[in-house]
Amino acid sequence: MMQSAKVMPRNYKRKTATRYSLEDLKKAIDDVKTKKLTIGKAAETYNVPKTTIFDHLKKTVVKLPRTGRKPLFTDKQETELVDYIIKCSKLYYGLTIKKIRQIAYQYAQKNKLTHNFDQVKQVAGKDWYYNFMKRHPSLSLRTPEATSLNRITAFNETEVGVFYSNLKTIQDQHHIQPDKIFNVDETGISTVQRNQKIVAVRGQKQVGKATSAERGCTTTVVCAFSAGGQYIPPFFIFKRKRMNPLLLKGSNPNMVGAVSDSGWINESLFVDWLHHFISYAKPSKEDPVLLILDNHESHISLDAYSLCREHGIIMLTLPPHTSHRLQPLDLTYFGPIKTAYNQECENHMADRFGQPITQYDIVELFTNAFNRCSNLQKAASGFRSAGIYPLRPIEFDTIEPNLSQSNALTIMNPSQTIDTITQLTNNQETEVQQVSNADTTAVTQVHSVEDFNNQGSDTVLADSFSENLHEVHLSDIIELPVIPPKVSKRNIRKRKSTILTSTPIKEQLEEKENRKKTKAEESKEKQKKIINKESQIKRLKCSDKGPLKEVKRVLKNFNNIKEFNDPSQNTKKKGNKRNEDFFCIFCEDKYIDPPVEDWIMCYVCGKWAHENCTDGQSTSA
């Protein structure tokens, strides 16, 4: 019978240990270099293999040799792979485990390395991946945060530099202290919580947990804090038509609520929030306050500008699509408080079986999370992480690699390599000796230890150049991801970081306000026209005798129209004589059959007239 192949266990534990220590190895090498002992005597004295002593004579750093199977790639090749993984993660195109295994397979194939990778799936093994991660502890498996292409491209040195330049200008003029530097932003909370992991039966396919509904109702919360740790009481915006005091049940006494049709903030509600902000921040023209906010349309209005100028509030906007890196609230506050809010929702659902979370419960649950999470450390850390206070602009060289520059994975020119090798071998031909094996006979070919030390570096250099001659670099196999510049067909004015309370902005806001008024007037005129048309149609359909069908006004062919349209046929219903003559009630001309002109009948009195004689008059009045 055939014996089944033995599979090496994944967590293999070595059964034997190294017979010598690092100290013994160092002493043996020192004795050989100082000519106290030969390599053979040193091996016997310190119980170190002769080949190990011989190998370490040409190394500057002495360390214990690796045990177990040797890695497939060299240290240099693995360093290239690590650099590529790190650069891809910084470019927002990080590699998954499967992708790294595919790249490792391609790398081994191109360099013609002997490996036992899966030839069918063309990927490296899982054991290789786990050992690779152990050898490089600087790498770890992370869950990435979804980042849109707009955020990736907008966060650049030029746009961010404008923001820090505006911030420096404000600080140079006003010297604002940290307790007067505020950041404001909105976030949404839902009546449906995001559940945490629970303990359940192992192997069960689906595990559920109760929530209020399939889709929740979103409520906007406007939050603000200062670099000094002061928190402005939250401002809630509910998706409703009318405000109910019960919505603020369980809140702090200084919290405020409002309503909007969409549940989101608008220009008028932002002005209301500014009044709320002024009552707690206490700004003035003598002691101004800096308010940092994003470029949302609701924040930019003439009313907000006038209110801020009147009370000494300086509004500075962030560059578009950069709040994930420059907004203090997004950096250190919204994450923890949403986690705490979800925990409060879970506790609420667990304590009240069968009762859903409604709008009347949101404020109380959020207040508990707000009181627990709001502290000085989060506020100060948010401004420090964004580089706002203390003012420390983000250095892009240490964060994002410059794609315009050459890659860090340098590629050696093959022609230069060959020239260097030939020149080196010609100059050192008499000195360099090939070491074929590590036994005693190979050692005797070196005349002295000093000669070996002088020749060792040249031998290693020549061997490395010969290896590089046939080596395929990782940059030759796969390139770094590069996002092409976005080309827009529409001529859209690009927004930048601006000081909203500066004088040039006032003119733009006035123009914007005038355009809004003009647009509102045009919409009112259109609405009036629509209402007038609807009223005319209603008048035509209704009369004193009750609702009638729409009367046909143009009678072009009397022969094809039946008794309602034919005056002679219409007399039969009224019992008049058949040969009765008909006259126009305006010009008193007699009806002639067939008619020369178009005639119409008044549906009130039943008499006839020329259509031209009526001049578009209505009988409904």
CA-based shape: elongated
Mean pLDDT: 79
Q: Could you estimate the helical fraction of the residues in percent?
A: 40-55%
**Low-pLDDT residue spans:** 1-5, 401-467, 543-579
Strand and helix map with partners:
Elements: H1 22-33, H2 39-46, H3 50-56, H4 75-90, H5 97-110, H6 126-135, H7 149-154, H8 157-174, E1 181-190, E2 218-226, E3 231-239, E4 256-260, H9 267-281, E5 289-293, H10 302-311, E6 313-317, H11 323-326, H12 328-332, H13 334-351, H14 359-373, H15 376-385, H16 414-427, H17 440-443, H18 449-470, H19 474-477, H20 503-541, H21 567-574, E7 599-601, E8 608-610, H22 611-614
Parallel strand pairs: 1-5, 3-4, 5-6
Antiparallel strand pairs: 1-2, 2-3, 7-8
Helix pairs in contact: 1-2, 9-10, 13-14, 16-18
